[in-house]
Design goal:
The complex is a heterodimer of chains A (461) and B (336). Chain A is α+β, with helices and mostly antiparallel strands. Chain A has 15 helices and 20 strands. Chain B is of the alpha+beta class. In chain B, the strands form four sheets. In chain B, strands 13-10-12-11-15-16-14-17 form an eight-stranded antiparallel β-sheet. In chain B, strands 3-4-8-6-7 form a five-stranded antiparallel β-sheet. Classes of the chains: A alpha+beta (461), B alpha+beta (336).
């Protein structure tokens, strides 16, 4: 691949041994492809040496999806960062996977278009990484998650073959391999280019800030808005500790004495927007909101969003370490699960902050602590176990947007039966029969019944 | 024994099964191979749970879409599966994978399915996805099952994402060229064009629907007539190439109706050979034609996907003995 594009110095290997999560691994070699042919070449080389490989974008993932295990080759995608083509009429962009999420939106803004998925890390995370985890973000409530915005991908499979999954036509012949690939966390291959849908900017946007003297009232307002038949563009909740922290950090105008705030955005044409703003204000006030502020100008709206989007940066001011969870529960169970999250934090004597996509039922409990305190990690992990159990007990799922990776792999058997996991393992093997693509992620070992790859004729499978 | 377990046992013990819905889309995906003793299986029917405040519904796959729509309408909601015949079952519509006419606004039907339960060829009951509106835990079985024509498993239960019914929904016609109309309107529910007239479906708040209609001088109208004929097909094409495909279809005089911005074109004719010609024209523009009805001698898909090897291995993984709807999706068989 050329000098400078393949590295194995000890210091660099340490740099690539983990993503932004807590799991550490061990890389054997790191390489930096600059084209899909480089990518295919690197994967074939890994195949020849019987080395597994793992793709890495900006390394902002939290579930260990990009953490190398089994001395994997780490393939860093950040040099494949060109926007290849933008079609403003078809509203499609072809991008390389290393393009940063927000860079794509910035580059099409003059066309009145944007790329809808907007994870909180959108300034830093790559589109390729977003595809890997089927990333979400505040505006996925109405716009849908990444999979709804990926039309096609040219993918290098685990054996180095390049295939096109999906297409610009609305339906591809045969199985939806594109749909399988999105969210597969690099275990089915690595995308070399991706066609994404661009979304027209809405003509009107209103951002509302509602503040509450109790967390329950805020959570009930969330259910109330949905029950009213309104699906806002975004519906975010922040509790008191995070609201105060963020306000000191960016001065977004959040009330310092509120127990919880909701940040709500409605978009569309003026008639619908006005009606929804009125209805949301009524629902919030009926459930005890102290006030509902409506931001109309771009400047006022951006300030409100700046607070929300800087939440995780602000954490660093409080304590050296944090552990961010990602669970989803049915929206009607939000109040009880949130209560349980606070109880669990109390039981483990931990500080918890909550800033999350309430409209989707997607909670992000965030434990803030000093990792050098003796015994603290055990308490943090115990709290994590408790939260996952509470989520599953309420009919929820293990992850909404961060993925399973290594972090939640061993919880998969709590969420799915042995037969479910066996079927998942078979699907993965169909894409990557030799198992070189990001091994040991997503599925716990032993997911395959008898670890048998293909059934002989006549077997009752 | 539960209904699912009975079905699983029946499928596990059978040599070959045909999964039956309401039979409204039987021309799609290829005829089932009649040389084997076929057991017909049907998914159970009924709505398991409907929670309006969650905007989701858990429904058994054999439930007719019309029954589901009626139940959702009682709470002011809908799920835009929109099959042409509402007698079609939920499982049948998903297995065939044909999205409805409002796709440009509400997305393809594969984006509606949150959780699936299905029975594999080996008679195992498998669940994938989850009941929440957001979920990345493991592989996306819901999307895999949509459009799989019952060759990977028999859908028995699904959780679907619903939405509020818009307070106004009206069809209009316009003199404007379809592309111009598309760039002038914010989030229409459908723009349909047959070469003579542009039709547009507006949904949303009444004030917005009426003001958009008056700004663009739209005329209230009935929904667009679909082309009529015994032999029917659905072309899938890059939506920016609809114009040139329309011209080529005009040259061979096959009537069509295009969904602008989506890339679906409905064609119909009373002459089976013309459906074949339409397919060749579609291939010439980089698209493909799915046979939906009639033309029994026409291949169901007319093309083999470039990644059929992966598809073959997937089919092998879920139905290694090839007993589910044998003959459907003929290219997706693993040949070692």
């Amino acid at each position: 691949m050329g000098r400078g594009r393949v590295r194995a110095e000890p210091l660099e290997l340490i740099l690539y041994q983990s993503d932004a999560g807590t799991a550490r691994g061990q890389a054997s070699v790191v390489c930096f492809p600059e084209s899909i042919d480089d990518l295919s070449f690197a994967i074939r080389a890994a195949n020849r040496h019987c080395v597994s490989f793992v793709a890495r974008g900006s390394g902002t993932g939290l579930a260990g999806g990009a953490t190398p295990v089994a001395n994997s080759l780490v393939i860093v995608m950040t040099r494949m960062n060109r926007i290849l083509e933008v079609d403003p009429v078809g509203r499609v962009a072809w991008v390389e996977p290393g393009v940063l999420n927000l860079d794509l939106t910035r580059s099409v803004r003059h066309l009145g278009l944007h790329y809808a998925p907007d994870p909180s890390s959108q300034q830093a995370c790559t589109i390729g990484g977003n595809v890997g985890t089927n990333a979400g973000g505040p505006h996925c409530l109405s716009a849908g998650v990444t999979s709804a915005h990926v039309l096609a991908a040219d993918v290098v499979l685990g054996n180095g073959d390049i295939v096109r999954l999906g297409g610009l036509e609305p339906d591809a012949i045969g199985y939806d391999l594109r749909g399988c690939f999105v969210g597969s966390e690099g275990t089915m291959g690595i995308a070399g280019s991706i066609a994404v849908r661009l979304t027209p900017d809405p003509p009107e946007t209103r951002t509302l800030l509602a503040d509450f003297t109790s967390v329950d009232a805020a959570a009930e307002t969330v259910s109330g808005i949905i029950a009213e038949g309104i699906v806002p563009a975004a519906l975010e909740m922040m509790d008191a500790p995070i609201t105060r922290l963020v306000e000191e950090f960016v001065g977004a105008g959040y009330p310092l004495d509120a127990e919880a705030v909701l940040l709500i955005e409605v978009t569309g044409l003026i008639g619908g927007v006005d009606a929804e703003v009125d209805a949301i204000r009524r629902v919030a006030l009926e459930r005890g909101a102290r006030q509902v502020k409506v931001a109309i100008t771009e400047q006022d709206r951006m300030l409100l969003w700046k607070g929300r989007k800087s939440a995780f940066g602000a954490i660093a001011k409080v304590a050296p370490d944090y552990y961010l969870h990602d669970i989803v529960v049915p929206r009607t169970r939000l109040v009880e699960v949130l209560k349980r999250v606070y109880e669990i934090a109390d039981e483990q004597n931990l500080l918890v902050m909550n800033v999350f996509h309430a409209g989707d039922g997607n909670l992000h409990p965030l434990f803030v602590f000093d990792g050098s305190e003796p015994g603290i990690w055990e308490r943090v992990y115990a709290a994590g176990d408790g939260i996952i159990q509470a989520c599953l007990d309420a009919g929820g799922v293990l992850s909404g947007e961060h993925g399973i990776g290594l972090e939640k792999r061993d919880y998969m058997s709590l969420a799915y039966s042995a037969e479910d996991l066996d079927a998942q393992a078979r699907l993965r093997d169909a894409f990557d029969p030799d198992g070189f693509a990001n091994p040991e992620k997503i599925l716990p070992t032993g997911s395959r019944c008898g670890e048998m790859k293909r059934a002989p004729e006549g077997t009752w499978v | 024994m539960t209904a699912f377990a009975e079905l699983a046992e029946q499928i596990g013990n059978a040599t070959a099964v045909e999964i039956m819905g309401a039979g409204t889309q039987r021309g799609i995906g290829g005829a089932v191979d009649a040389s084997k003793p076929i057991v017909e299986v049907r998914a159970p029917t009924g709505i398991v749970s409907l929670d309006p405040a969650d905007m989701t519904v858990r429904v058994l796959a054999g439930t007719p879409v019309g029954v589901l729509s009626a139940a959702l309408a009682e709470v002011g909601q809908e799920c835009p599966l929109d099959p042409e015949n509402s007698a079609a079952t939920v499982g049948g519509v998903l297995a065939c994978g044909c999205s409805g006419i409002r796709r440009i606004r509400y997305g393809p039907i594969r984006d509606r399915v949150l959780e699936v339960r299905f029975i594999t060829g080996g008679g195992r009951l498998v669940r994938g996805g989850g009941p929440t509106v957001k979920n990345v835990s493991g592989y996306d079985f819901p999307r895999l099952m949509v459009g799989s024509h019952g060759t990977l498993g028999m859908l028995v239960e699904v959780v679907l994402k619903t939405q509020p019914i818009a307070n106004k929904s009206s069809w209009y016609t316009s003199e404007l060229a379809p592309d111009l109309l598309r760039t002038s309107i914010y989030r229409p529910a459908c723009i349909a064009w047959n070469g003579k007239m542009t039709y547009v479906l507006l949904e949303g708040h009444e004030i917005d629907v009426l003001s958009q209609a008056s700004e663009l001088s739209l005329e209230p109208a009935q929904p667009p007539p679909h082309p009529i004929g015994e032999h029917r097909g659905r072309i899938s094409i890059d939506p920016t190439r609809i114009g040139s495909l329309a011209k080529s279809l005009g040259d061979i005089k096959v009537p069509w109706l295009a969904e602008i911005g989506v890339g679906t074109m409905h064609v119909a004719t009373n002459n089976a050979a013309e459906l074949h010609d339409a397919r060749l024209v579609a291939h010439g523009e980089g698209g493909w034609l799915l046979r939906e009805a009639g033309a029994p001698l026409l291949d169901p898909f007319g093309a083999v996907p470039s990644n059929r090897e992966v598809m073959g291995r997937i089919r092998d993984a879920f139905d290694p003995l090839g007993k589910l709807n044998p003959g459907r999706l003929p290219f997706a068989r693993f040949t070692p």
